[in-house]
Amino acid sequence: MKAAAWALEGLRFFAGRGWRASCTSSLLRGILKLFAPRGKTVLSNLALVYPESTEKWRVQMRRRVYDSLGWTVTETLALQRDPAQALDWIDEVDDPRHVEEFLAKGKGVLLLSGHYGNWELLAAWYAQYFGKKGLRNFQVVAQKIKDEDVDRVVTRCRRNAGVNILPKHTPTLDIVKLLKGGAHVGVMPDVSWVGGLVLPFMGQPCANTIGPAVLSMLGSVPVVPVTIYRAAPFRHKVVILPPLQVPEGADRRVKIELLTREINSTLEKMIAPRPEQWFWLHNRWKK
After folding, report:
1. Farthest-apart Cα atoms in the chain, separation
2. Which of 18, 49, 103, 123 is most exposed, with minimal Cβ within 10 Å?
């Protein structure tokens, strides 16, 4: 096992609430700030989205991004001691009825989220919270981590928390079949994309996947946005927004573009209240 995976395993056994969390978070945040992974990408992204910002503000924002990421890893590792803690760490849910109405009908849902707040905690909470309300099939589409040892550790952590992973390369029709069978499938289309549809995101053009729009249309399921905000370490709020509507009265290609635009707009609204909690390390606006 490589060094990174060993380190994660070691922290997984050590991490917990209280002083353990403080130590783990301080270590991780210190390492992030010292080595500044993808630091230039973070600053470049911030300058692109906030062109009127000062360099000082962007550097400060990068530190806050690393702080948020450090706590995300700490909380995710601490969750492994008892995955049921996911329910206790959510102080408020607004508004679960947007999911419950479809769950009651046994209808599948395409969940729209992003790499925001503690997205790993969000998935664990969703699996457990709606599992208690009758959800039997919850999947999240995720890309495999390049480091295979780290990927195995992360995958095991997710499964321990009740989250099933669909590989990113899963055929579209297989996912459609799951959705039509009543599954709730989470997607996070806020990352960089090769090819796809060029549309504005945060005011700047970039390539976007049309996958969520296509899945929603082929599966005849709603797109329900869901995100999470950290108020403090181990204290979070989940926000579930009303379903996005598939445009009517247009041909298929126009519908896909319009729905993809709406997805981008919704992601922007999710990020706007607490931008430091978004994963700015992505090279989202590739040339």
Report:
1. 58
2. 18
Q: Which residue do the tokens 């099939």 mark?
A: 137
Residue 157's H or E segment, with its range, is: helix 148-160
Within 13 Å of residue 19, how many CA atoms lie on the same side as its CB?
Answer: 0
Look at residues 189, 219, 249 and name the one whose alpha carbon lies nearest to residue 102: 219
The pLDDT value recorded for residue 8 is: 65
Q: Which of 10, 136, 129 is nearest to 77 (CA)?
A: 10
C-alpha dihedral, 205 to 44 to 213 to 177, nearest 10°: 150
Q: DSSP string covering 38-85, please?
A: THHHHHHHHHHH-TT--HHHHHHHHHHHHHHHHHHHHHHHHGGG-TTH
DSSP letter, residue 109: E
Nearest one of 156, 162, 152, 71 to 123, comparing CA atoms: 162
3-state secondary structure of 5: helix
What residues pair up with 19 in beta bridges, in sequence order? none
What pTM value is reported for the model? Answer: 0.93
CA distances from 94 to 83, 190, 212, 225 (A): 22, 22, 23, 12
CB contact at 8 A, 279 and 115: yes
CA distance 159 to 144: 14
Helices and strands in the chain, H and E counts: 11, 9
pLDDT above 90 covers a percentage of the chain that reads: 75
* Angstrom distance (rounded) from CA 125 to CA 233: 16
CB 122 within 8 A of CB 41: no
**pLDDT surpasses 80 at 90:** yes
How buried is 174 (Cβ within 10 angstroms: 0-12 exposed, 13-18 middle, 19+ buried)?
exposed
